[in-house]
Amino acid sequence: MTLSGIFIVLMGVYCIYLKQNKSPLSKSLFNLHLGAIVSTVLYNISLITTNLLSAYFITSLYYISIHFLVILLTDFIFIFTEMSSSPKYKKFIKVFNKIWLYVFFVDSFILILNPFFHHEFELSRLYINHNVFLCWNAKYFWMFNIHLYLCFALSAVIFGILLVKIIKANRFYKSKYISVFAVFLITLAVNIIFLKSKTNLDFSVLFYSVFSIICSCFTLVTIPRNIQNEMLKQLSDNINIGIFCFNLERKCIYSNTTAKKFFLAKDEILNELKSLLALRKDFVKRNIEIKQDDKTLTLAEEFSYLLDSQKKAYGYILKLNDITEELYKASEELFDSTHDALTGLLTRDAFYSETEKILKSDPNSQYYMICTNIKNFKLVNDLFGSEKGDEFLKEFAKKLKNTQSKTILTGRITGDRFAILINKTEVDEIDALQKIKELEKFTVSLNYKLHIFVGIYKITDINENVSSMFDKAALAIKNISENYSVNVAYYDNDMLSILKKNHEVINAFDDALNNNHFKMYLQPQVRCSDEKVVGAEALVRWETEKGAIHSPASFIKILEDNGLIHELDKFIWEKAVQLLQKWQLLGIDHHISVNVSTRDFYLIPLYETFTSLVKKYGIPPQKLKLEITETALVHDLKRHKKIITDLQKFGFTIEMDDFGSGYSSLTILKNISINILKIDMMFLSKTKHKERSKKILESVIKMAQKLGIKIIVEGVEDKEQAEFLKNLNCDFFQGYLYSKPITVANFESNYISKTNISGGTR
Ligand code: C2E
Ligand code: CA
Ligand code: CA
């Protein structure tokens, strides 16, 4: 009884502890303990009760409590084996519990009737020394077996479940089931021994308590801890971080498998610890390098103190992470993000930021920003395909980098534009340029000689935006003329103002066109034979709102370069045709020559434009003469020749403007039948050899006459020139000698009889 008392107290205390834990396992353990306490208490009371009827009732209740205890144990086993949380068994458990509850009630009912009918057991007093009551002696009848077998059946279910679990469960969990199985087996065995031995005192009751407590220990403490330890060991061995733990005496008390891989020798790790302790810091994070099989590994090292719950140090922990691969990948990624995939040179952004760093690191040196541009590189793509173009760029970039010393920064800014930064104190820029120029030789291997243009900007302010430095070097290239013998240009500040001017023109263009700021001026064209004005050349002027008049030289080229010239030309052509229509109505026979820019051939359908224009205003095409410069005919001869002959067939007169200023004027004469040749007097007179010039002019005129081509000479400024041309039987003149380009109103009042004019068209 004393022993029972001790167990009851122990279990009671444990129950209080279990109550705090809300997990289903703790709850069921709590119920189990409570059941065990009730059974033990009932048994002890049954022992000391002296009244026979009370003894009968309490003993019945004791057996009922035992049955209930086994039910609680089943419930615990369901939770312990995790069957209750598995959806597979949930329904089974529910049905099972329901059925067994009925069974339990039947058993309890039969047991509770025993005090009246004595059908299960009979009690008799047991005395010591004949008159001292010791305890009750029970005699069992076969009906009691119902109770016994029911409890055994339930126990069998428990054994069954545990056995299956023992067989199926993982190594870690096997022990947890085996231990509970074993304790339960012992308890049951003791119980059976008691029943068989027919002793009066049932010691197996004590085993219920022992069983409950052991179950608790195993399920809640020992087994989870063992599993946890095993898991932690596996985890720490499997992670890539090496862990060393030392006590305060610097003795290594723990190291995982990875850690051992990093430091093979004991001394090495101790030396490392020493060096860390020498830093006298609570926490150290740094990268270290170690040698391993000819390889150098980079380890991220983290050192700190091991602290207990009171924050008192009881050792040191050293974590080592191999970041060699990571660093390699990161450096690879950095390379990819900063280097151009095709050429391997720095990308634009990377080049700019690297340049900035260099300039800031040594601001006293003199630097040059160089921009290289391959002239007409687009042609390589068009002729050989973009794959070949890429291949060429790759090779070019490689050679470009190799021509320069290592200290030089090279980048690919866009397409075929490369940037080079040179330090004048280390590299002579003339030398560098020479080497770049030599690359042209390499382009010959492509069967297509490419010209490399180089723009140079001398960096004066290192705080200037690097992209603007490059833009200036690139801008210098724009200044390189079509004359291929010169391919290097230095940036100067005028270039920027030119650029600004270009922008101004482009920005103001649309407004000027819509608000009629562009005016058609006319320069008379005179017939040589009678010196009569027979027509005029239409020349554009830009009249601003402030009254300034800009000559075409200041904007035509800009509009051409920016693909806007056709808009202006169409505007002037329409003005010319409108005027011709007016003159036609007035019976005036004059023609007008209009200028057609080379770019117009690419920007608009010329044939359709001109034919629809004359149709719209109902004028004969012969009245509109088209001045085309020979450059338009050099490029794309086949295509342009077709346009020109189609226009001629329609009735237009084609004039070849600025004849003799290009290289291939005579070749063109051979290929296309031109109606009129326009020769610039200024062009010839500028030459030193005046006499020779005159002879050339003379033979050109004669040749044209033989070919049936008419001649008009422009730039005639003095009488002497006019006389000379007259003697050569030249057809028409145009020049300041007769008139500068003038407004339509002035032209009409000066060269058309006043009676014909009913109003001015400007
Ligand atoms: P261009 O077609 O060769 O026009 C002749 C230029 O020579 C005109 O200059 C004219 O004013 C100038 N000039 C005529 N006689 C003499 C002379 O005796 N002495 C001198 N020194 N110069 C003379 P302008 O009007 O400044 O035009 C310049 C160029 O602009 C033209 O050269 C033409 O190429 C272009 N241009 C003019 N108007 C237009 C236009 O509406 N469309 C296009 N696409 N180009 C035009
Ligand atoms: Ca012209
Ligand atoms: Ca001309």
UniProtKB/TrEMBL annotation:
PANTHER family: CYCLIC DI-GMP PHOSPHODIESTERASE PDEF (PTHR33121), OXYGEN SENSOR PROTEIN DOSP (PTHR33121:SF71)
Keywords associated with the record: Membrane, Transmembrane, Transmembrane helix
Span of domain EAL: 502-755
SUPFAM superfamilies for this protein: EAL domain-like (SSF141868), Nucleotide cyclase (SSF55073)
Superkingdom, natural source: Bacteria
Species, as recorded: Treponema berlinense
Domain GGDEF: 365-493
Transmembrane annotation, as ranges: 29-49, 55-78, 99-117, 146-164, 176-194, 206-223
InterPro entries: Cyclic-di-GMP_PDE-like (IPR050706), EAL_dom (IPR001633), EAL_sf (IPR035919), GGDEF_dom (IPR000160), HisKA_7TM (IPR031621), Nucleotide_cyclase (IPR029787), Rev_trsase/Diguanyl_cyclase (IPR043128)
GO molecular function: cyclic-guanylate-specific phosphodiesterase activity
Record Pfam families: EAL (PF00563), GGDEF (PF00990), HisKA_7TM (PF16927)
Protein name: Diguanylate cyclase (GGDEF) domain-containing protein
Keyword Transferase: no
